[in-house]
Amino acid sequence: MSEAVEQTRRTHWSGVADDAERDRWTRVAEEVAVTLAADALERDRRGEQPFAESRLLQESGLVNLLDPAELGGGGGHWESAFLVVRVLARADASIAQLLGYHYINSANVAFVAPAAEREGWLRRTIEGRWIWGDSVNPVDPNLVLRPDGAGFRLDGFKRFSTGSGVGEALLVNAVVEGGEHDGRLAYLVLPYGHPGVELVDDWDNLGQRLSASNTVRYHDVRVGPEHVLGLGTDEPFQSLVTPGIQLVFGNLYLGIAQGALAQGRELTLARPNSWFLSAADTYREDPFVQRLYGELVSRVAAVEALADRVNRSFDRTIDRGSAVTADDRAALAIEVAQLKAVSSDTAVDVANRVFEATGSSSTASHVGLDLHWRNARTHSLHDPVDFKKLEVGAHFLTGAVQPISLYT
């Protein structure tokens, strides 16, 4: 490949996944999902940092799915990565979130790092089987990053730092105050246990309890040049990180809905008899129950078809590398927003209404059917879905697109 073509492509990702690749990673994800499903409810109740689950992801090879094969990575495409998130979310949405965020966080090597430094970051990631956590919450502008010699000093805190409790690498976003880079967004990578970094084990929420999304506090943290991944720009290619994370969300919600339906089906088939006013002999034969599942299954199937299409669109856009335009990026963002709108609402609704078919006995704590709803309800509040609907509607009516941010 010529140097000019390589520079245009910008990354090791090219083309789209074929059937063999998707099948390979689906099988791996399904094996991991079986292990996770065996004690998902018990682990959720304990709410401990997911060190064991992280090792499972590392040993399976899933953490390196997107890394270049020539350096020892999985050589996979984004379509496969999104599909893996979806498969895991059927069994354990917390760990699916952890892995999905890792994919996006580590992808900043391609989106942000200078070309000459990318291979070094990739080699360390692959050889160490790193999981990349993050501390980037844009609505917590509570970090102070000031120049200090050749590097910086970092103070403050960030909430909702997914993967920070277990990841080998912690991606941190902070705006520089002072010096030649004043006002620019810096992407920092700190190793687990870096001096001055305090991991606060305070993630005790309704759902996604094992996503390690705790608070991180920074106490006069030295940030050397070796910890600086790169600086933010207004380049359309670099900003693909936001459609990427929102696509993780769409596939996460779809997987949760599929998991709720699968468990609901098992419970419904196991129910004896039927409601005393029904003409059917069993609940599975009751037309009202069948109609309910018909509606829910059809909605989930429609979301799946949209997700598959948008997942592939992401790979096709990535393939354009530095040739990606603002219009390309905007078109992709609208597709992703469409998926976010329908997948979010569908997951919450399906995980709620499936109880209508499974009955009051399915609300028992030991059944754990509520886990799907708790996970969907918690993560779907990440950023208001109404703004995604507004984004889609405004574009449809006026052609307007949202300004680029870490949420749009």
CATH class of the largest domain: Mainly Alpha
Report the β-strand fraction as a percent range: 5-15%
Gyration radius, in Å = 22 Å
Q: What best-fitting shape do the alpha-carbon axes yield? A: globular
* Number of strand segments: 8
Strand order of the largest sheet: 1-4-5-8
Order of helices and strands: HHHHHHHEEEEEEEEHHHHHH
Looking at the overall shape, the CATH architecture of the largest domain is: Up-down Bundle
Summing up helix and strand content along with how strands pair, one would put the structural category as alpha+beta
Helix content: 40-55%
Largest sheet geometry: 4 strands, mixed
The name of the CATH superfamily of the largest domain reads Butyryl-CoA Dehydrogenase, subunit A, domain 3
CATH topology of the largest domain: Butyryl-CoA Dehydrogenase, subunit A, domain 3
Task: State the helix count.
Answer: 13
The residue-averaged pLDDT reads 95
What is the number of domains? 3
The oligomeric state is: single chain
Low-confidence stretches: 1-7
Instruction: Give the CA-CA distance, first to last residue.
Output: 34 Å
Keywords: Oxidoreductase
Domain Acyl-CoA dehydrogenase C-terminal: 248-383
Domain Acyl-CoA dehydrogenase/oxidase N-terminal: 28-128
Protein name: Acyl-CoA dehydrogenase family protein
